[in-house]
Design goal:
Chain A is an alpha/beta fold. Chain A has helices at residues 2-20, 28-36, 40-46, 61-74, 89-99, 117-123, 142-145, 148-160, 173-181, 195-198, 251-268, 274-282, 309-317, 359-368, 380-389, 404-414, 419-423, and strands at 52-56, 79-80, 110-114, 131-134, 165-169, 187-193, 222-228, 231-236, 240-245, 290-296, 299-305, 325-329, 351-355, 373-376, 398-402. Chain B has a single domain (2-196), classed as 3-Layer(aba) Sandwich (Rossmann fold), CATH 3.40.50. Chain B is 39% helix and 26% strand. The chains are: A alpha/beta, B alpha/beta.
Chain lengths: 424, 197
């Protein structure tokens, strides 16, 4: 009865919000449902015959989950998953509001969810995951997480609750320490990247330093080899190598891909088809804001999402050919932009427009780093107009560097209504 | 020439605290004043501090905030660093200790409920009102002075950029004739905007 009431209230709220805010989602209905029926989420997740699979870690959760879901679906399974970045408890409740039957049953045979580190630690207390994939520990969201060691602790709790299999990144020493601190009865396997591929990025995987001796790198059962831009060889122990061409360039995408492949292999067991899986990855469309070039107002634009020191440094380093026009937007999701001061901006020649709810902080940072600023606009619409009013670049395309909140606001301002338009 | 000495900057920069050295040097650069920065390893801090105590003029010491792992990596030197840093403060050396290094210098505190938010706080000891991001679970004062010129604070990240009055006070203490210029005016306008926001 409580489930029925909660879902009815949530759905009415959702309809009302969509009437007044076209294209904009809201966590509010999910929040209300979580207050009325707090145990609904765990109950719903326990109903999947194939169990719950969790993908977590500081970075790469969305991409890895999308890849894993695509592979598993290609094998014919019906998968329930969460939209990109809706990876906290409220987001899960929102998904229930949208997709569950009035008895709280979600569609699909198996749930594959990306989960925020802290929220995963909370949720898995109530629903034991069948399989957990942990990607990394980074110095990320420190205003919230405080210290990488505390993130490792949360991830360790999640990992230790895996009932069947646990997959870990062999190239992040944090995860070796985590496993020592939080042993598991699940089968543990490791994925990784060969040394030449790691060397393709200036700071490698940019995981949080551990400043202590750790055991030798574990033997991996899945490895990225010979990474060059978007292409690499995926080697799975006992199954050989397959070439993979990713939709986006970068070491982190390759790590996400190898994690997804091995996760699918563990999940599907003897039904895992390596060729089909590699082909699925090869056919994935680009992930929005990860180097994809889109046309907006008749002009080509590259959208680049930055979320932490690692991704900021990586993207600044990888700016192609000194872009002629750049918009730099930092939103409220970067609650404290202090971390942005740990990044080297020497590859950023200038910024035409600075905007976002943290526009002043961003401008302050750029000023001290000697990056010339064209204009600062606190109003996003004005900033977008000013940027797109600039003449079409003589070479290349326009470049937008933004944080997740600025991305969402810009998406609405530019008229991308469908979430799929920006997630895939 | 203003000389900066920074302890283990690769490890004590979790929240961008080393940017404070960068900001002071940039403001010096805008004033046409030369500066240098010397990296100090934990095992050498005591010896370097002794030299600075003997000649404190124009010297600035930076002790940033580090992760638990980073602090643990030089735990064996913590006592000697604390003692040497307190000597520096007593001798009138300018400096800044943030977060975990503030805790190291002033270990008599209690753990309280964590605060993680912006703060615009009155400071004692003649320090200006200070704006920045506080992330602490201690009852230590948010910002305070040890000696005459050694600031200890729980305001992490680029506090000198966000509170340029504090930056200029530090520079004045280093013997610099502080004045405005086009660059500092522009930077300080952004800082004012951030504070107002």
């Amino acid at each position: 009865m409580r489930t029925l009431l909660a879902l009815a209230v949530g759905r009415v709220l959702r309809v009302l919000i969509r009437l007044v805010r076209k294209g904009g989602g809201s966590a509010f209905p999910g929040l209300v449902v979580s207050k009325i029926a707090p145990d609904l989420l765990a109950k719903s997740l326990k109903k999947f015959s194939g169990g719950l699979v969790v993908v977590t870690g500081s970075a790469g959760k969305s991409t890895t989950t999308k890849m894993l879901v695509s592979i598993v679906r290609a094998h014919g399974l019906k998968v329930f998953t969460n939209p990109s970045t809706a990876n906290i408890l409220q987001g899960f409740f929102s998904a229930i509001v949208e997709q569950a039957s009035m008895t709280g049953r979600l569609p699909g045979e198996i749930a594959i969810l990306e989960m925020d580190e802290a929220h995963a630690a909370e949720l898995t207390k109530h629903v034991a995951p069948r399989q957990v994939t942990v990607l990394n520990v980074m110095e990320d969201q420190l205003d919230r997480f405080v210290d990488p060691e505390l993130v490792r602790e949360d991830l360790g709790l999640v990992a230790s609750r895996a009932t069947t299999s646990l997959l870990l990144n062999a190239d992040d020493p944090n995860l070796r320490i985590m496993l020592e601190d939080h042993p598991t009865e699940a089968t543990v396997s490791w994925f990784g990247v060969d040394e030449p591929s790691l060397a393709t990025e200036r700071f490698g995987l940019a995981t949080a330093p551990v400043y202590q001796a750790v055991g030798a790198r574990p033997l991996v059962v899945a490895e990225v080899r010979n990474l060059a831009a978007k292409a690499f060889d995926a080697e799975l122990n006992g199954l050989g190598k397959k070439p993979v061409v990713l939709p986006n360039r970068g070491l982190h995408f390759a790590v996400d891909a190898i994690a997804a492949l091995q996760s699918a292999r563990d999940l599907l067991g003897p039904n895992f088809d390596f060729a089909l899986s590699a082909e699925t990855l090869n056919n994935l469309p680009p992930v929005f804001a990860r180097g994809e070039i889109t046309e907006v107002r008749g002009q080509k634009v590259e959208f680049i999402l930055v979320q932490n020191p690692g991704s900021m440094q990586l993207n600044i380093d990888n700016l192609e050919g000194d872009p002629e026009q750049i918009l730099f937007a930092i939103g409220k999701d970067v609650h404290d932009p202090s971390w942005m001061w740990t990044v080297d901006y020497s590859n950023l020649s200038h910024v035409d427009v600075v905007t976002g709810l943290q526009a002043d902080q961003a401008a302050l940072l750029l000023k001290y780093h000697g990056v010339p600023i064209g204009a600062v606009h606190h109003d996003l619409d004005q900033a977008i107009d000013a940027f797109f009013d600039l003449p079409t670049p003589k070479r290349g395309h326009k470049t937008v560097i933004f944080s997740a909140d600025a991305m969402r606001r810009m998406r609405r301002a530019l008229g991308f209504w469908s979430p799929e338009e920006v997630q895939r | 020439m203003i000389e900066f000495f920074t302890l283990a900057s690769d490890r004590l920069n979790l929240n961008g605290d080393q940017a404070n050295v960068f900001v002071l040097r940039k403001r010096l650069d805008w004033l046409g004043v030369a500066s240098s920065v010397t990296e100090v390893a934990p095992e050498n801090f005591e010896a370097v501090a002794k030299e600075l105590v003997a000649s404190p003029e124009g010297k600035f010491v930076m002790l940033g905030h580090g992760s638990k792992a980073a602090m643990g990596s030089f735990a064996e030197y913590a006592d000697s660093i604390r003692s040497a840093a307190l000597d520096l403060a007593s001798a009138g050396v300018s400096g800044l200790a943030v977060g975990s290094c503030y805790e190291m210098l002033c270990p008599d505190f209690k753990r309280i409920e964590r605060v993680s938010d912006y703060a615009d706080v009155e400071a004692n000891g003649g320090l200006p009102r200070t704006f920045g991001y506080v992330n602490t679970d201690t009852n230590l004062p948010v910002i305070s002075l040890l000696g005459e010129r050694f600031v200890v604070t729980m305001v992490h990240g680029p506090v000198f950029a966000r509170t340029p009055e504090l930056a200029d006070q530090m520079l004045f203490g280093l013997g610099v004739s502080v004045g405005t210029n086009a660059n500092s005016v522009e930077a300080d306008l952004y800082a004012e905007g951030a504070r107002a926001h």
